[in-house]
């Protein structure tokens, strides 16, 4: 039997873990920039935007910027890095359009559906996300994976964001799950893995880019590897 034989509840992060945020984000910007900035190479923009977006999310997770500031800053900083002069009014429009278009493209990571189908037979599956509620629900529904999950906890519901212990406590409470029978799977070492471990919950790092990790953490690079662990 696996080392996780005690597990009954599996909690997943959504963006960058099941739902391929970077790929879907690129498609959304392609639609938006087609008429606004036809000369702008999307790959060039994404190369700048992706790390800035991640940095902004880290600030948001640590309550250093608000939801609205995140949506503005990630675009403003990206345009600034590309030396493009874009007005605040246009940034606001692009931000709204981005949120509108983002859930329409629903690329999932390789093996996502296969793995969820396998796990769903024997485990209760759940989502814990720092993403905004309305957008996350659209992603789950539009990508066809909503039905796999018994509960969905977002930071707006819990009043705090990962890695705060209160969001994990809230998620376990509505899932009627105990720490000792639960595990968190996510792509962020700080928010998902550190948050869960500090809360006293098992965790598996979805290390899709095979980044070197100093601490001894259970990790996978492809979702289908979970079929061998559970």
Automatic annotation (TrEMBL):
Gene3D superfamilies: HAD superfamily/HAD-like, Putative phosphatase, domain 2. Pfam families: HAD_2 (PF13419). It comes from the Bacteria. InterPro entries: HAD-like_sf, HAD-SF_hydro_IA, HAD-SF_hydro_IA_YjjG/PynA, HAD_2, HAD_sf, PGP-like_dom2, Pyrimidine_5'-ntase_YjjG. Coiled coil: none annotated. SUPFAM superfamilies: HAD-like. GO terms for molecular function: 5'-nucleotidase activity. This is Noncanonical pyrimidine nucleotidase, YjjG family. It comes from Flavobacterium amnicola.
């Amino acid at each position: 039997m696996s080392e996780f034989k005690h597990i009954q509840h599996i909690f997943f992060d959504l963006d960058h873990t099941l739902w391929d945020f970077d790929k879907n984000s690129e498609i959304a910007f392609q639609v938006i920039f087609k008429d606004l900035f036809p000369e702008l190479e999307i790959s060039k923009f994404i190369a700048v935007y992706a790390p800035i977006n991640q940095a902004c999310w880290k600030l948001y997770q640590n309550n250093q910027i608000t939801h609205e500031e995140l949506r503005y800053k990630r675009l403003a900083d990206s345009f600034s890095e590309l030396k493009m002069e874009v007005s605040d009014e246009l940034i606001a429009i692009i931000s709204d359009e981005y949120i509108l278009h983002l859930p329409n493209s629903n690329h999932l990571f390789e093996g996502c559906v296969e793995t969820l189908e396998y796990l769903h037979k024997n485990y209760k599956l759940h989502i814990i996300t720092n993403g905004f509620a309305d957008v996350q629900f659209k992603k789950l529904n539009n990508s066809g994976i909503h039905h796999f999950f018994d509960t969905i906890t977002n930071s707006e519901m819990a009043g705090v964001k990962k890695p705060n212990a209160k969001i994990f406590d809230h998620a376990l409470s509505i899932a009627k799950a105990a720490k000792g029978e639960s595990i968190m799977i996510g792509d962020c070492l700080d928010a998902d893995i550190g948050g869960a471990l500090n809360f006293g919950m098992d965790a598996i790092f979805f290390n899709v880019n095979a980044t070197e990790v100093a601490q001894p953490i259970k990790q996978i690079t492809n979702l289908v590897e979970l079929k061998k662990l559970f």
